[in-house]
Amino acid sequence: MMQKEHTTSGRTGLTFFETPFGQFSARNWAMFFLIIMVIIFSLTGSGFFDITNFQNIIHLSTGTFLLAAAETLVVITGGIDLSIGYVYGLSSVLGAKVMQVLSSSNLSLAWVVVIGSAVALCVAILPGLGNGILVTRFNVPPFIATMGMWGICNGVTLFFSDGFMPVMGAPSIINDIGNSYFLYIDPSHNIRFFSKPPSIRISEIRMLIRLIPNSFFLSLLVFIVINFLLSRTKFGRHTYAIGGNKDAALRSGINVNKHLIMIYTISSFISGLAGLFNLFQTGIGNYTPSGANYELMAVAAVVIGGASLTGGKGRLFGTVIGVLVLAVLENGLQIAGISAFYRYIGVGILLIIAVIIDRAFPDFF
């Protein structure tokens, strides 16, 4: 007994990961990795460390962030949503189809866009509602329930797009809206907000300075709303409680079934919003047979950002870092002239590292 006490008292200090800085490092390893990548790609890729390139990264990763934000809510509850990629495709195709049909009517352009967008978002709610009912009322595992909805959304999208054909005919103004910037400065130093100067000549387009893509404000709005819900409201506390211990949440009086239906419905709505953004970004309704890649990237971003697939743990800020890690990795490899196939290898490695860190240091997060 005396020897055991001597051994315990003889410890000279804490290990690195028991120190405050060590715990901070384990909790924020993805952020440090992101900083290292930015430094490396800035040194190896010409044009990487440029304001225009960084704006492109933010703009092109908007859809991924929205899907990852949706997945974050579900993962915190201990579930998973595999249908978000095809809800994304369904919203994009359906919105374009409605706008295409209405464009031949006497409706004004504004009403065509508004009605098409509203229909896409309203329909996008239905898969999430179905997922929530299957998980709660019929006790279907989230993996199976959302995989089944994955197939349903896939089939409906194929129906509206006549196979794999992109849906054309949406008003061209949506493309202008989806790819516009908050601030424009022309060569004569005139400033214009939200749209290009109408008098600028084609020869001066390359000299036009564009600052802050409007897609950034969409991501910022979604981040503020969801982060507020998770960190400042009873809704957020219930979400973490369900993921931490579902039985304990039930005993504490939380209506778990109602809450989970809300979570899956919100997830589906945000995924539909991402698909609608894709329509505004590209100008066409995009169906893609590689929709599963969207789920892969969303789940990878959530896990890399520090969330646990067992539930009860996750931060939206961490998800943002996870999305940026994946976006910077892809962009940096492209600029460095390295095959994009290596991106998937990198994502797989990062995902494994994230799970190892989560298992090794569960109390640090």
Biggest sheet, spatial arrangement of strands = 2-1-3
Q: What helical percentage do the residues reach?
A: 55-70%
Identify low-pLDDT runs: 1-10
Mean pLDDT across the residues is 88
The top level CATH class name: Mainly Alpha
Strand content: under 5%
Folded structure, characterized:
The protein is mainly α and 365 residues long. The protein has one domain (55-364): ABC transporter involved in vitamin B12 uptake, BtuC. The protein is 67% helix and 4% strand. The chain contains 16 helices and 3 strands. The chain has helices at 2-9, 20-27, 29-44, 51-60, 62-76, 84-102, 109-137, 142-160, 173-178, 214-232, 234-244, 246-251, 256-282, 292-304, 316-335, 341-360, and strands spanning 181-185, 191-193, 209-213. It has a 3-stranded antiparallel β-sheet with strand order 2-1-3. Strand 1 (181-185) and strand 2 (191-193) form a beta hairpin. Helix 5 crosses helix 14. It is globular. 38% of the residues are buried. The model is unreliable at 1-10 (pLDDT under 50).
List keywords for this structure.
365 residues, mainly alpha, ABC transporter involved in vitamin B12 uptake, BtuC, 16 helices, 3 strands, 4% strand, disordered N terminus
Set down the secondary structure blueprint.
Blueprint: H1 2-9, H2 20-27, H3 29-44, H4 51-60, H5 62-76, H6 84-102, H7 109-137, H8 142-160, H9 173-178, E1 181-185, E2 191-193, E3 209-213, H10 214-232, H11 234-244, H12 246-251, H13 256-282, H14 292-304, H15 316-335, H16 341-360
Antiparallel strand pairs: 1-2, 1-3
Helix pairs in contact: 3-15, 5-10, 5-13, 5-14, 5-15, 6-7, 6-8, 6-13, 7-8, 7-13, 10-11, 11-13, 14-15, 14-16, 15-16
